[in-house]
Amino acid sequence: MLRGEVENLNGLTQQGFTGSALFEKTFDEGMALVEETARYLDGRGREESRGLPRKAAMLYAGESMRVTTRLMQAASWLLVQRAVHDGDMEAEMAAGERYRLGSREICLGKSADGVESLPPALLDLLERSDNLYRRIARLDDVLFGDAEPAAGARGQQDALAQAFGSE
After folding, report:
1. Of the candidates 102, 76, 80, the residue with the CA atom closest to the CA atom of residue 91
2. Which residues contact 72 (CB under 8 A, 6 or more apart)?
3. What are the structural domains, with CATH classification, of the chain?
């Protein structure tokens, strides 16, 4: 998803978003990634992890939990939005803290040193799940008013100037 697609959601209602092509694309991508990750972790990934040195195996366990957490949070959020679209849930209820995207500190946290030693397939899933989670976090923020869309380089310069007290 292009950054502009998220920024163009300003003023769009939650129901309008859930009826959009952007939502359908994100929903389909998210659910497909959940399935792909489950197949990998239950199959080839399990075999690959057995052949890793102890330190790398511990790192594998931690990062596989991170990818699982990201995808469970993303899938839950997407399913709640789908329920709003289908009329199975009120938009006001879905906007409540209970249904917002969670576990940001885990999902957006920095990977441990040595992650590059993990199997390439897991690294790919980590990157793709991170991208998906970040896009959904941005959508969550835009839809529920927690963040203003990025104002580009000028807006960032203004924010830095304000933060550091310069004109």
Report:
1. 80
2. 34
3. 3-164 (1.10.8.930)
**If you count DSSP H runs as helices and E runs as strands, how many of each does the chain have, helices first?**
9, 0
DSSP secondary structure code for residue 117 in this structure = G
User: Model pTM?
Assistant: 0.81
Q: Is 48 exposed, middle or buried (0-12, 13-18, 19+ CB in 10 A)?
A: middle
C-beta atoms surrounding 90 within 10 Å: 11
Shortest CA distance to 95 belongs to which of 140, 136, 137, 149? 140
Tokens describing residue 41: 């972790």
Asked whether the CA dihedral 148, 99, 31, 13 is positive or negative, the reply is negative
Task: Give the side-chain half-sphere CA count within 13 A for 123.
Answer: 9
Check if the beta carbon of residue 122 is closer than 8 Å to that of residue 45: yes
Express each pLDDT in 53-93 by its tens digit: 999 999 999 999 999 999 999 999 999 999 999 999 999 99
| CB of 63 closer than 8 Å to CB of 11 | no
